[in-house]
Amino acid sequence: MGRLSRAELQQRNRARVLAAARDEFAERGFRDAKVDGIAGRAGLTRGAVYSNFPGKRALYFAVLADLAEHAPAPTPSHTEPAPERSPTPRDALGALARAWVARLPLTETGVAHEPHGAARLGMHVMPEILAEERIQRPFAQLMKLDAILLGLALERLAPKGLHPPATPPSTPPGRPRQVRVAEAALTTLYGAGQLSAAAPGFVDPFNVISACEQLADLDLGDVWPPPHLPYIPQARPADAPWSPPPAFDAVRGEPARLTDDGVVAVLGLHRLEAAEEAVRAARPGARVTAVLVTGDPDELTPLARLVVADLANCLRQAFPPSAWPRLQVVYDETGTLAAAAGVPAVSDGTEAAVRIEAARIVARADGRGACHAAAASSAVADAAADQVPRDVRD
């Protein structure tokens, strides 16, 4: 066997640390787990652990993110009849809630039998988020992103079981914006998760599922207003090649389609809600990609992976592929993808966007409002083209 390169050795050691940390957290719980214990389990030094992770919390987030991203897909039932209609928002919210509560430790018996088992590994996530304001703000924006993803999926479902159109608009006629309903559903599900850990036996999963189903019938007066900004930047025309590195779409669990025509938004973890501005302003059928960047990739990127994966796993079980939101989410820990979009330096406050056509960057915008500006520029271009006489265009 040939000698491992430095990168290969680092990758192997990182995998050993993650596996050892998972065992340590499962056996001892997060609070009682020790970095020295993790190092001993991995057969490495304490320094080797810290060379891969800046601290125990970062390692904890990384372990949970790996577990969420590699959770086994549910085994399909061959006894259930094929559905005769497309699911309604009520159906989908019920299915999402069932998938969510299925992974919770809901009974006292389960807690006593496995007090620090895999089902309870995540019980210290919220206390660790609450411990520092530096983590709370990105987490709040990650929850906003989850609500946007779920809301967009709900909007793509036709009411009363009718088949949705082949290419639904951003907010289908007759269907209000559903992000507020999504926020209410996530509030219910996260609350159930916290109570299942803090008060074993209190949470009734059937009540949680029923409550989420009922949310589909609520009218929360949810509308999408244009961005309320004192100054919305104008997208600047551009003409540059677009050759992005390979990336993975965390929503669909497959390689991201980055060369399709559409909008690529580079967003720091303080600006994730701006992704909705790109989706709402983009023309129907355009692909929108949110590239998540941060000034603290060692700790905050694993948190982002965890929060998005927790929703995406349930969303893929509850919604048909035709209803998955037209928003890709990719992580850019090294800033390579951001650099390809012309954003050489990133932080948690970054907001920049480019519009892609025929594998070229044709417009770009930076700063607050950039997502709306870049996406809306396609509509402006279309309108301008419509003003040109047909004989001139031909």
Strand content: 5-15%
The CATH class designation of the largest domain is Alpha Beta
Sketch the major β-sheet. Answer: 6 strands, mixed
- How would you spell out the order of helices and strands? HHHHHHHHHHEEEEHEHEHEEHH
Average pLDDT confidence is: 86
Give a description of the structure:
- It is a single chain.
- This protein has 394 residues and is an alpha/beta fold.
- It is built from 15 helices and eight strands.
- A six-stranded mixed sheet has the order 1-8-7-4-5-6, covered by helices on one side.
- The protein has helices at residues 6-32, 35-42, 46-52, 56-69, 89-101, 108-113, 125-130, 133-155, 179-198, 205-215, 275-281, 297-318, 336-340, 370-387, 390-393, and strands at residues 236-241, 248-249, 254-255, 262-268, 287-293, 327-331, 351-357, 360-366.
- The chain folds into two domains: 7-52, Arc Repressor Mutant, subunit A, CATH 1.10.10; 89-384, Glutaredoxin.
Q: How is the secondary structure organized here?
A:
Blueprint: H1 6-32, H2 35-42, H3 46-52, H4 56-69, H5 89-101, H6 108-113, H7 125-130, H8 133-155, H9 179-198, H10 205-215, E1 236-241, E2 248-249, E3 254-255, E4 262-268, H11 275-281, E5 287-293, H12 297-318, E6 327-331, H13 336-340, E7 351-357, E8 360-366, H14 370-387, H15 390-393
Parallel strand pairs: 4-5, 5-6
Antiparallel strand pairs: 1-8, 2-3, 4-7, 7-8
Helix pairs in contact: 1-2, 1-4, 4-12, 5-9, 5-10, 5-12, 8-9, 8-12, 9-10, 11-14
